[in-house]
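User: I've been trying to design a sequence by hand for this structure and keep getting stuck. Would you show me what you'd pick, starting by listing the structure so we're on the same page?

Assistant: Good idea, let's start from the same input. This is the structure you sent:
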């Protein structure tokens, strides 16, 4: 069952990739198909446009169009967490308020990703976001150079003192141990800590008390089933499935958006594999390797 917007968030909240047409314009039809695929796969929520969505290569207007389309496509069926990271508090706060007005069920943000404020600056940034929205805020604790790693103590303070700061996406290293530290520091003031990094540490994260994971979307059905097995206490079954999809996750971590888009293209969801990230292409040897690992993880996609 999908998580209702007014229930505590738990499970697989996928990061949506951004589809582009051959002329590099946004492909909104493919974006809508991706939402449909994720909802049909049973995800508990969708998120973006985040790092895996190539948000840094999008204009402000494109980010707004993206958020509007996804909010409309979700139509309240699953929570939509709009990613609103900005160069400063004013920019991020304005986008956050706009996203909520479009129907986003919450927001996720990194601290300013060029200025890299100190601890007090990070606090003021999230305090401003807290004043702009009356929806859950997810702190994205991400490694540099894009992210500004924050201490567990700082995140605990924000969860206790800022009413809408309610979740953390922990992506600093070593991630599973950082999840333990963040949970210890935030206590009951935090509704949950999500893992990231494509789900590569999801087994350890679950054991340590993570409330879910935010992988990219192309293996939505597999990630959802893996989480169900963990929730059901079927550790052996979960380990078998995890080991089956792990080579795909490793491939994704090497090739990034090129891997996400190739798989979504093979599913018939994306019309192209185009990216705005330089070098985000797979050569023939890459595709040969992907075919072999998909033969185990999702045989219908192997060619």
């Amino acid at each position: 069952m999908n998580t209702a917007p007014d229930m505590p968030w738990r499970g697989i909240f996928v990061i949506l990739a951004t589809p582009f047409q051959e002329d590099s314009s946004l492909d909104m039809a493919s974006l809508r198909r991706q939402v449909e695929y994720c909802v049909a796969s049973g995800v508990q929520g969708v998120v973006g446009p985040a790092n895996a969505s190539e948000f840094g290569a999008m204009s402000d207007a494109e980010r707004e169009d993206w958020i509007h389309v996804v909010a409309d496509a979700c139509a309240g069926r699953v929570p939509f967490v709009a990613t609103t990271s900005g160069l400063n508090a004013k920019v991020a706060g304005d986008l956050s308020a706009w996203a909520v007005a479009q129907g986003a069920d919450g927001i996720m943000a990194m601290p300013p990703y060029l200025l890299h404020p100190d601890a007090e600056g990070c606090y003021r940034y999230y305090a401003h976001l807290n004043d702009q929205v009356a929806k859950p805020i997810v702190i994205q604790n991400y490694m540099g150079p894009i992210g500004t790693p924050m201490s567990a103590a700082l995140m605990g303070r924000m969860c206790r003192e800022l009413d809408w700061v309610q979740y953390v996406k922990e992506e600093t290293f070593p991630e599973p141990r950082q999840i333990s530290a963040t949970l210890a520091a935030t206590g009951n003031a935090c509704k949950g800590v999500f893992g990231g990094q494509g789900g590569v540490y999801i087994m350890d994260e679950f054991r340590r008390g993570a409330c879910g994971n935010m992988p990219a979307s192309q293996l939505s059905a597999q990630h959802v089933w893996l989480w169900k097995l963990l929730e059901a206490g079927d550790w052996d079954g979960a380990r078998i499935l995890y080991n089956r999809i792990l080579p795909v996750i490793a491939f994704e971590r090497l090739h990034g958006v090129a891997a996400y888009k190739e798989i979504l293209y093979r599913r018939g969801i994306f019309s192209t594999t185009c990216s705005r990230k330089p070098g985000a292409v797979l050569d023939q040897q890459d595709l040969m390797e992907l075919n072999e690992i998909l033969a185990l993880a999702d045989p219908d996609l192997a060619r």
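That's my pick for every position. To get oriented when you compare it with your attempt: Residues 69 and 246 are 31 Å apart (CA to CA). The two ends are 32 Å apart (CA to CA).
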